[in-house]
TrEMBL record:
Bilayer disposition of the protein: Multi-pass membrane protein
Domain of life, per lineage: Bacteria
Annotated signal sequence range: none
Protein name from the UniProt record: Rod shape determining protein RodA
InterPro entries named among the record's database cross-references: FtsW/RodA
Organism of origin: Mesobacillus foraminis
GO CC annotation, single: plasma membrane
Pfam families recorded: FTSW_RODA_SPOVE (PF01098)
UniProt subcellular location: Membrane
Example of a GO biological process term: cell division
An MF annotation (GO) of this entry: lipid-linked peptidoglycan transporter activity
Key words, A-Z: Cell shape, Membrane, Transmembrane, Transmembrane helix
The keyword Signal appears for this protein: no
Length: 404
């Protein structure tokens, strides 16, 4: 029997507090970045505007329940794919090449809209729907049925992934793969298939990196790879030798974060000039002005967010909601790990923003749409009488996924 819940009790106040903290961090970092940047635009005002728009997106999204999202899953997916296709068909006046990629619609006076940011969320919904549908129609799990599910999810992911790679946008493509991987791990697919596929992928990736570093002439001769395409790998491994070209941003980022030491230089006391620091390299601003302590606090805030999303995934009674949470967790975790990692030379540089902190309307709206799904899950879950928590806990079985 269900307990009657007040609407205020259903609202996710913890998530709201975390988002408010991230909003304040974003405002402080962008304000400092724009004061020493090469632009005269007020990015802080625009970021506040997009946060307000994002709050509106959350308000609308949270009133739809899981059944609604399952019914609309393929409509969302198809709409996202159509937007990606439209990028190639649109004239340069509407979809110009920016930094070598055709990834944005430019709509005045709104600005630029990046469809792939929304496609990531639509993909999470579609993959979650496919997993639930497959498991509902599978009475006995076998290697054959698991392989069928893997292929289904692979095909669903391949279409938007291919369109994003053609833009080209390697960073977003990697995020799409992280979403796919996260959902594969909890879908109930046999670990024999997962280890075989991802083990082979890891071996191939390791071989390619080895060839890029030690035998690039082989790739140039037989795979027709151009020398300049190795630039990001070389700049990552030895940024000082490429600081006049592809290694410039990394060298400046390391200088900024390193000069912040433990306590930082203080708000507005930046000395290292770093272009585009209000977007992908916003963590460099935080590291220089607030030091190791400030950067660590930001990382801890993201840990709090991921922990809260994990609790939501475990508390919900609907498998579909669990998969939604898993997809969002995979997306946010990869974004944070990759963005911060590239600013400190742990990972190669890709065009991936720091969620909720970097400036960017499309990125922020996409992330707020993802948070809207989490708010919806919390708002619509049912609490059962005589239960100590929001619902009966479900155990994760590596061979069967989440079950009662």
């Amino acid at each position: 029997m269900d307990k009657p819940d007040k609407k205020s009790d259903k609202f996710d106040w913890t998530l709201t507090l975390i988002l408010l903290i991230l909003f304040l961090v974003s405002c402080a970092a962008i304000y400092s970045a724009q004061n020493t940047g090469q632009y005269e635009e007020n990015f802080l005002f625009k970021q506040i505007f997009w946060y307000v728009v994002g709050a509106g997106i959350i308000s609308v999204t949270m009133f739809f329940d899981s059944e609604d999202f399952q019914k609309l899953a393929w409509i969302f997916y198809g709409f996202g794919v159509l937007l990606l296709v439209a990028l190639f068909l649109a004239p340069s006046g509407i979809a110009p090449y920016i930094n070598g990629a055709k990834s944005w619609f430019v709509i005045e006076p709104i600005g630029s809209i990046q469809p792939s940011e929304f496609m990531k969320i639509f993909l999470i919904i579609a993959l979650s729907r496919a997993i639930v549908s497959h498991n509902q129609h599978t009475d006995v799990k076998t290697i054959k049925s698991d392989l069928s599910l893997f292929l289904k999810l692979g095909l669903i992911t391949a279409l938007p992934l291919g369109l994003i790679m053609l833009q080209p946008d390697l960073g977003t493509a990697l995020v799409v793969l992280s979403i796919f991987t996260g959902l594969i791990l909890v879908s109930g697919i046999s670990w024999k298939i997962i280890l075989l596929v991802y083990g082979s992928g890891a071996a191939l990736g390791s071989w390619l990196i080895y060839m890029v570093i030690w035998k690039p002439e082989f790739l140039q001769k037989y795979l027709h790879v151009k020398t300049y395409q190795f630039g990001r790998i070389y700049a990552w491994l030895d940024p000082e030798s490429y600081q006049d070209s592809t290694g410039y941003h990394l060298v400046k980022s390391l200088m900024a974060i390193g000069s912040g030491t433990i306590m930082g230089k203080g708000p507005g006391e930046r000395q290292v000039y770093l272009p585009e620091s209000h977007t992908d390299f916003i963590f460099s601003v935080i590291g220089e002005e607030y030091g190791f302590i400030g950067g660590s606090i930001v990382i801890c805030i993201f840990f709090m967010l991921i922990y809260h999303l994990t609790r939501t995934a475990l508390d919900t009674l609907e498998p579909f909601n669990t998969y939604i949470c898993t997809g969002v967790i995979s997306m946010i975790t990869f974004h944070v790990f990759q963005n911060i990692g590239m600013t400190i030379q742990v990972l190669p540089i890709t065009g991936i923003p720091l969620p909720f902190i970097s400036y960017g309307g499309s990125s922020l709206m996409g992330n707020m749409l993802a948070m809207g799904l989490i708010y919806s899950i919390r708002f619509h879950h049912r609490t059962y009488m005589f239960s100590s928590g929001p619902g009966p806990r479900r155990q994760f079985n590596p061979g069967k996924g989440f079950g009662a």
